[in-house]
Amino acid sequence: MITLYVNDLPVHVNKNSNLQQVLALSIQSLNLQLDNIAAVHNQHLVPKSQWAISVCNENDQIEIFSAVAGG
Amino acid sequence: MADKGMTETLNDNQFMQYYRQILLSQVSEYGQQKLLNQHVIVVGVGGLGCHVTQQLTAAGIGHIYLLDDDLVELSNLPRQILFDVTSIGKPKAICAAEKVIAMNSDTQVRYFCKKFTYSFAEELLHTNAELQQAHQNGQLILLDCTDNMPTRQLINAWCATHFIPLISASVAAFSGQLLVIDGQVAPQSGCYHCLFGSNANPQGCANLGVLGPTVATMASMQALTTIKHILRLDTELKYLHIFDGLQLSWRQFVRHRDPKCKSCGHWPSQSENQLSSAHQISPKKVNL
């Protein structure tokens, strides 16, 4: 297991987990839907098509936030 | 040497009017001329659109195109500052145009009481010779001030197709997001669709609520970003800027192009600057 941080909170996941897996695990507690979010991995936004191939490491910082569309 | 499509020097009155802008070395008389020759399409004349149009008109943007099919409602008044009680029930694009036309005679304001559709945007670009010329001269920018994701995706796709720089701002509750999308200058940072897919369906101000000053903050940043982009003062093209109105804080994250994006897939892999500097560097490499 490794520890990484999702929106500043520690999360324990299996070694070699990818971003897609970490997001799927995290969004329920954040009350968000996968379609509506963007994900930041160590300060870099990761396009959705790359989530499954972005491998997470110990102490990585992940930010999840929702799209804002109002004007 | 003047840029393509630039008019002659400022007259005395313009020099006085824009003196405090011209005083900035990054703007100067030449920069003010660029602003006066710029064409800006504002899509959505709601909270963001009202503020941004007012600021860009005051700054001396030469040509503004307002696009909105909505009518003014009472609930708009706390944040849509170009409207008052006499505007209720009238088209937003007309009311806003009437207000800003009176602000600055240097700004030519055109309005369209239309919803943004791909076909209307095509018609606007291809039937307006002045706009078409501005596009060819690199003097056209579009500002997304709309309130829903499908329209944002449509605007992004149209701008990406035509390589029109897009400055996107959004706001709801206490959150705001701002980004500059330019397929010629920063293709590696991708487009709006690289960031949020077509299936995203976030809630807007109608559900989440919003305060006028939060909208004004995002609109001011959008207007400032627009002026900086026109004057090539950009330093933050690669970022998504996120505003938290409760904490009064900004965060920046680096954007990346989605290699599978359907909207910007035709963009080059490198910017024009990168390509030209690569061309300049390669002979030196050969000499070594």
- Counted by DSSP, the helix tally of chain B is 12
Give the percentage of residues in beta strands of chain A. 25-35%
Mean pLDDT of chain B: 92
Helix content of chain B: 40-55%
Q: Order the strands across the largest sheet of chain A as they lie in space.
A: 2-1-5-3-4
Main attributes?
heterodimer; A: 71 residues; alpha+beta; Ubiquitin-like (UB roll); five-stranded mixed sheet; 1 helix; B: 288 residues; alpha/beta; eight-stranded mixed sheet; 12 helices; 41% helix
Explained architecture:
With 71 residues, chain A is an alpha+beta fold. Chain A has a single domain, classed as Ubiquitin-like (UB roll) (Roll), CATH 3.10.20. Chain A contains one helix and five strands, in the order E-E-H-E-E-E. Chain A has a five-stranded mixed β-sheet, with helices on one face. In chain A, a hairpin with a 2-residue loop joins strand 3 (37-41) and strand 4 (44-46). The longest helix of chain A has 12 residues, at 19-30. The N and C termini of chain A lie far apart (43 Å). The mean pLDDT of chain A is 94. In chain B, strand 2, helix 5 and strand 3 (108-112) form a beta-alpha-beta unit. The A-B interface holds A 35-36, 38, 40, 43-50, 63, 65-71 and B 44, 46-49, 144-149, 152, 169-172, 175-177, 190, 194-197, 199-206, 208, 210, 240, 242, 253-261.
